[in-house]
Every structure is written in structure tokens, then in C-alpha cells.
Queue: 3 jobs
Job 1
Amino acid sequence: MKHALYYVRPVIAATDSRVDYDILSQAREFHDEGDHLKAIHAYIDFLDPDFRKMYGNKMGTKFVIPHGSIIVNIEVRDDWFYVWADFLNIPEQGKIAMLRQVAELNSGRLMLARFVMHEGKLRIEYHCPVEHTHPDKLVSLFRNICYVGDKYDDEFCTQFGATRVYEPQIRPYSQEEVKRVYDAFKLTSAKAIEDAAQSIKDRNLGEAWAQISMAFSQFEFYALPKGSLEAECEDALEALDEDLPIPERVAIATKKLEEMMARPMEEFAKDLYYTQNLTPLKGNATMQTLQEYFEDVVDVCKQAMDANDYPYVTTRFSHLIYKIYNLFEVSPAIHTLFSNVLEEVSNKPVQEAAQKLFGLGISIMNGDIDLDDYEPEEGGSSPSSEGADHGVDLEAMQQAMAEAMQKGDMQEYMRLAMEMQQAMQQHYNS
């Protein structure tokens, strides 16, 4: 490895996230005070301050929120809390094999919620008394439901012939963005394959493993792929952790990358789109998180710097940063901190890159970084769910969504929800 990774600007900046952890703290306080409905409202506001207005009834006791190809229903009734989401239509052929895997998910992937049969459909549901709805529990519950919904809908449709109850409302990337992502994937993957092959030849097996791993985690960082493309990346990253000799794992991952690189751009474009999301599927990274993850890497890289092993240092720190992006929701401030350094060392000689990346690690461990210095500048007053002028006729769109729901036309409901989210997002970014 002679040069650091290329930096590729992500399709969505971290600043686009509307999750607010200060509101989650308020939700915890409301719950501890025994005001459970107010705590549930605050939890929903934590996800997005407009969700209650967009998707809730006037009493604030029922919410119908799209997420990908599912619609998550939340209802508070008679001091009980109910959540359900119709997942897939069960096929006649392949039914037994599919339900066998569903049973495995019930005892494995799903934590609190469970799959149940409901009117010929596979449904995810959960209920409990309202006093058992601590906000941290809701964070885990909804992440788990949405993770399973995202991961297994494509898989069950492909393997067993199941069909979606609702087709996800998507907004494809522009042709220019697809081409940028596609070209970047070929560039970054070719470099990863070349670097890993050289590291295998030099018997630097740990570096080879990290270099080929970064091809997938970096792609997920800048492209945010969906559907089968995302699943392939996640499966490849899991396979790299299997109990096999490292050269064999690297060879398998290299073959997967080469297969993906050989696909035409039109195939890639099918899984490059924006969609509606209820909740982030990852935990939030803090400065404490960074220090915990950087500690061991800084220690081993100090020895490598003393030995002038710049390829090792560059590989370890680059891999760590993209691993953090892969595992956590990264705040705007941390994203700015990371992206500034990654862009600065992009394709630079490893000696220069190693010095800057090691300097970042030392600054993080010494507590020299104030994340407030990396917060993006506010562009006017922050949007609020209380009386904000979004440039969107919210009342008219809500009325249309209510009419669609009353007719039972949930596909139209999802279409209108996507249209409203898109209009509001454009307002926030303007």
C-alpha cells in the first residue's frame, strides 16, 4: 500500500439526520415521572419532530409511520402500548420453508417483538403496559423491528416467493449521482483488491483483511445502498469474520468485489435510492465511543510509527473510521471531524497520511477535540414541529393521507407520506 484510500463524498451528509438525543433525555425524564404518554410522544419527537403531526391522530394515541416496505402502527389504548407492522404475504408454495425460517427469527433476530400470522399475512407485533415503555426500550424495540423488516423482506421474496404487503415508496438517485457512486465503487474496489493482494504477498495478513473489508464498509458509507446491494455488503463483512484462514477470507471477499464490479451501472441503480425511515438502525457515536475504539489502535500504531510502518498505520486508522461509520450513527460534528481528515489524506502517500491519521488519534485520546468546534453553522432558526412554516401544505397532505387510510389504500398513504417527507426535506436543506 503506497497511498491512502480515496475519499468519496457520501450521498447524504450526516447533517441530514433529524434524530435529537436531547429529546430522548427528556423522554426518559417524563417516563421516570410517570407521564408515560408524554414520554412516548417525546420518543417519537426524538426520531423526527414532525412525525407526530405528519402521522398521528389528533389525540396523539395512534401513529402510522412508513419505514421502507412496511408501515409501523403505534397505538396507546386502555393503558397498553401496541405496535404492529404487516410484513409479507405468505406464498402457497414455499410456505413451510419460509415459516421454518420465521420461527428461527422469532428465537434469534427478533428481541421483544414476534412474527405472527394475521389474515394470511406475516405480521410483526408487540404489546405491553404503558408503564413498561421506557424510551431506551423503545429505541431497541423499533430498531429491531425495522432492522428485520429491512433485512429479510428482499430475502424472503427471492427465496420463498413471498410478496410485499406494501411496495416501498422510493426516490431513485439522479443519473449523475448513480454514475458518481458507480465510478467511485470501481475505483475504491480496484484499489482495495490491489492493496490486499500486495499485503498477502508481503505476508501482512491483518492489513490485507482490513483493506478488503474497507471496500465494503467504505462503499456503504458513501453510497448508502439499499436492498440486495446492501445485503451483499453486510454478508461480505460477516463472512470476513468467519473462522477461516485470512488468505481464504480475503480471496472470497475479493471474488465478491470482482463480481459486483462486473455488473452494469443499470443493475447498481436498482438499489440506489432514498426511502422513508422510521428510526436509525444504529446507536449514536459520542466522543467516549471514539476514545474507546481509538485507544487500542493508537497504542499499536505508536509502535508502528516508531518503526516507520506507515502502510500499517494508514490501514488501521482508515479501517477504524469506516468501521465506526458502519456500526454507529455519526453526528454532524463527528462526521465533519472525520471527513476533514479523510479528505485531506485522500490518495496521499502513506507517510503523510499516517502522520495526519495518527495525529487525529492522539488528539481524540488526549481530549484535545471540542466537538462544538465541528458543529455545522445554523442556517437560521431550527425547524420545529410547533408551528413551523415548512413551505408544505401540511394540513392538506395530512387530510389526503387520512382519506387514503380510511379507504384502506395504504399504498397511496405511503406515496403521500414519501411526497411530504421529500418536500419537507427540501425545505430543511434550502
Job 2
Amino acid sequence: MRLFPQPPAAPTMRRYQSQHADHLRPSALALAPDDGTETNLIKVYPDVLRQEVLGFGVAVTQASAHVFAGMPEDAQERLLDACFGPDGAGYTLCRTPIMSCDFSTAPYDYHSGLLDAGNRRLDFSADDAGIVPVLRRIRDRRPELELVATPWSPPAYMKTTLRRTFGGRLRPAFHQRWADLMARYVEHMGERGIAVTRLTVQNEPEAVQTWESCLMDGRQEARFATEALRPALECRGLGRVRILGWDHNKQRAVERARTAFEDADNPDALDGLALHWYAGDHFEAVRHVRDTWPHKELLATEACEAFRGSGRGLSADDELSAAEHYAHDLLGDLNAGAGAWLDWNMLLDERGGPNHVGNYCAAAAFFDMTGGGFGGTCADGLQLTDTLAWVSHVTRFVRPGARVALVSRCANDVEATAAVNEDGSLVVVLLNRRGHDAFHKLCIAGTRDLPSRCAPLSLPARSITTLVLEGACGPATRAASGPPPGTR
């Protein structure tokens, strides 16, 4: 019996299309036999499969949790459905800070002081009152939820500067104690039913910030992971937790990978790299890291736009521009070899906060804490922006366990990615950021399970389109492609 039945003679793709404020309109696209056209093609190869998709997600900071707690329950439900529901973004990953970051209402840590040498008097009450209840609500929708946890800074007394802000470094004498605290955090979250599956060693380790920050070079990261953090995890039975380095901008990913992965003493100190988008695309750097170290994980862990509102959310043009930028980065990172992609704050208030140093930014969702409903435009005070809908064009349809497929384009006017899910469905996502419509022909190359098929494409100006073909790839196609990079 075939697990993936042959599609009908004239297969039809499900089509979903979005423009500003008009999201995921459903329709159908009929495929016809390949007529041999050789021009103006966007060609998809379902049997040329690359890295495995680990999942997609968003950060739950203390700021997000604070705003969430101030929302009425129906608005909370609407937000959770939009982010984690099967008809929303379908996220399965969350990122959380270990202790406070700038997106906290005030600085806090878990440590009661220098005398607590054994980490016995740790106080997790700030997270237990704020972040953890939100994560539990998410887990109720997504039992498979996985957490990526990141520290912005160790406790002040462990650092050379004796403060958590303005950089400084972790003092060598406190490596093990800091590692033990991080491992205890993982254990604590597990006790509350939240699975931390990945830790990053340090957020943005080459940035001196006015908020919580700490400097750490590549060799220090690798040494800390090998000599302190991994043993601390293993002694608590948490050896399954993956440890990622860098967690900073993509433009230096190659240098960091060389330092971490070419260490002759311990090339396996880190399981992969985490990447941010703030210095530009640098998709070529991501591709080089993926090709050179194919069994290391690459996660895009943070992206956000600057906040240009004035207490009234985002303007229509800012909202659409942010959605286009997010979609561009998400498609580019997947094509370059990333296995996961996470947005920054799940939710912020009408100012793009709270943020205890005033470092406000935009988010995919805002809630008007003043009660004004963004000038009456949002009855329940919750604004879900274009960004969430546009990202959903990928995250709802490309599921964990999928593999990214090769796409070849005749020109750069349309951006595209494709993936094959474990159930054999093919997903193609097409982004047109231009101010005019684009016209192409989609060609799905033949496989062992499906003959070559084509269809004309009309992509409206400033739009994103998702196409889904069920049963495109059966077991023969997936088996022929070999094991996915990014797995062990």
C-alpha cells in the first residue's frame, strides 16, 4: 500500500495570497503538463532536499508577559490563536531570556547574593509570575513546544565590571557557578512543564549595551560550553540540551564558526550557531556555514524593526514594510541553510515596550495599555499586524521535520522558497516586494512520484503567496534525497 497516493491527472495546488490588511485569501491553481517553456520560469525541485526545518517561533520576554497579563481574556485568546493555533502562525518554538533583558519592566536576576555559593537560594519568582504562565498557556495549544533560552548577562558579582549592564566579562572563577545556574534554570522550567531544548551561551557577545550585556569571544564560548555548561547539564540528566554559540549578527557568522568549530581540541563544543538580522541579510555567510559544517544547527533567533509609532501602533506603510522585511529575511535564511527562525517580542504595548532602558521596538502584535484601542481602530485593544500574517505564509504550512527544497528563478524580481513536509506535501512561498505585478510560470520538476507540471503565476505588487500541493513527494523521492544536513 502506498503511503502517499499519486495525485490526480490534473493536480491542483491550494493557493493563499496576502497584501496589506487582506490576508491569506484562498483559491486554487491548476497544474498542467510541462509544455517545455524555457523562459520566465520559477522552477522547484522537490527531490533536491536540503536542511531539516526544526520549527518557527517567537520570544516571550517579561515585557511581553507584562502586556499579556493586562489584556482581557478574549484578546489573550485571539493572540495565542494567531501565534500558535493551526489556523495562525503555528509556532512551535519560543525564546526566553535567562534573568532580565532590556525588554523587562525592571532589571532582575535569580541570585540572592555573593554568599550563595551553591546556587541554593535562587529566586525564580519573577519568571514564575510572568513568563511561565504565558508559556503554559502556549503549551496547552502546542504540547510539542520547545524553548530556546538565552542569558543577557550573568549576575553582577560574577563579572569583571561588577554590573550587568555596559558589557564586562564573566570572571573565570565563576564559570562553573554561572553554568550551574543556567542548568538549574533548565531544570526549573522542566519542573513547570516547559521543555528547554536549546541554550545559547550569551546574547550578542560582542555588543556593549546600556542594558544587560556581557562580552565573550569565540574561544571563551567554546571553553565555557565544554568545561562548565555541558558538565552542569549532564550532571542533572539534561545532556540532551543543545548548546549554541554566537547569538549575534549574521555578518560575522563565518568567523565565529571557524573559531568554534575548527578548535582542534574540541570541535564539538557547540552544537551550532544562533543568528540575528540587525547587520543586514548576509545570506551568503549563512550558506557558507551550512555548507562547511553541515551537521551543525543554524537558528535565526532574533529579528525586529525599529518602532516608529507614537502610541498608536504602526502606520499602514510601516506595517507593510515590516511584513515584507520579515518575509524577505525568513525566505532568505531558509534558502541559505537555517533550520529555524524566531521573531523577537511576541507582544508589546502601544509604545513598543515596556523596556527598562527605553530601547523600544516594533512587534507583530501590540496592545494599547491606555485603553484607547489605538484611536478606536481596535475594539479589544489588540493590533495584529501584517507581519504575523505574512510570516504565517511560511510557518503555518512548512512544519517541523520538513526539508527545504531547491528553487531556481529566472530573475530576482520575485523571492521564493520551497519545502517538502513529512506527509509528502510540497509548499512553495513567493514574495513580490516590487511596486508592480509580476508574471512568471511555475514549473515543478518531475520526481519519482510526480511528472513535471507547470502553471502560470500572477503575483500582485507587494504581496506574498503560498502554494501547497498534496502528495507531491512520496517515500521514494524523500529516500533518494539522503539524510538532511543539520542532524546528527
Job 3
Amino acid sequence: MKDIPDFRSFTFFQNIDPQVILAAVLFFIGVSVLVVVILAAIAALAARSGPASSGRFLVQRVDGLDLDQYFAKRATFSTTVRLELPLGPEKVWKALCDEEFLSWLPTVRGHQYRTDVRAVGARRTLLSVFCALEEQFIVVEQEKTLVYSVIGASLPGLRDATERFVLEPTKGGGTLLKWTTGFSPVLVWWLPVRWLSPFIRPFLKIALSGLRHRV
């Protein structure tokens, strides 16, 4: 039977001051409590998410005249998804502007518009389980191009975010839909996360494919 090692024989442990160990334990407990408090606060804010809470934290509006530059360079993350749909541009356009857009996703409850207008300047609120985002239409070309920028959020951390939808009719009477999305966080906007694009695109394409069953 092997002897059980006596950890007290290691000089490393023998030379540690008990006060240092106590300080380390207290520090660990303090950090753990702080993390729990922060997560609880975020959960509480998320639980209160709704149309009125979407403007709690301001988000920088992206200029509609500088979209290519934004998606190509300024956004921390940006990617484009292409999906061909057996539906005409008019039906796809209607689905993009509908209150139920993306509501087929488990965490999305849909959109709520301020008015019935679907023109430049129109605002709507994306309602999800975790947060609410206030979006403003900045480019509207009927049945061709729809661009909106996030201008408010119920939770902090988002510096800017914009999405662009481009509709192109196909020969068979369908539509080639191009969805470009980009965003930048407040604190770590400099992180090189664009390399994640190939891994995220399949999930975005699956999310967008829900349009097939909603039109």
C-alpha cells in the first residue's frame, strides 16, 4: 500500500503566511459575490425589458450614407448572409417589415412599431427574452433595400449596431436576400472577432430561413 503523501512536507506550503491564504480566500469570495450581484442585476434588467425600456441606454446611430465603410472597417464584427427564397420581392419585403419578423426564434418575441409608417425615420422595438432594442429605419427603398440602426437598448454594452437587407429578384420569380449585420461593443470594440464570421453565418442563415414559412 502506497503511503499517502503529506502535503505539509512541501516547503511551498510551509512558507505561505496564513494571513496571505486568508486574504486570498476573502478576495475569491468577494469576487464571487460581485459576479453574482452583477448577473442578478442583468437578469433583473432583462426581466423588465419591454418597449419602454429599449431607450434606457443610448446606442450610437450609424449614418446611412456611410454604410459600406461601417460594415467593412468600423464595425467590430460584420458578416453577410445570402439566401434565395421562392417568393417575390414584395412578399419578402412585407415579411421583413412585419411585427412577427424573427419571432420564430426561441428568444425573440417580435417587433413593436411606434406607428404604421414604414419609411425613413420610423422606429420599432425588437423584443426578446434577454433585452429590448430600439431600431430606426435609415434607408428604405421599397422592395429593394431596408437598413435600420439600433439607437437604444435595455441593457448596457452596445456601442453601435446596424443591419441591411438587400432584395434582388431572380429569374424564377423568387428573391435573393442579402442580410448584412454589424455591431461594436462599448468596451472591447478593438477585438479582432471578424474571424468568427464563417462560424456564425450558418446560424444566421438558419434564422433567416424562417421566412420561408412566414410568407
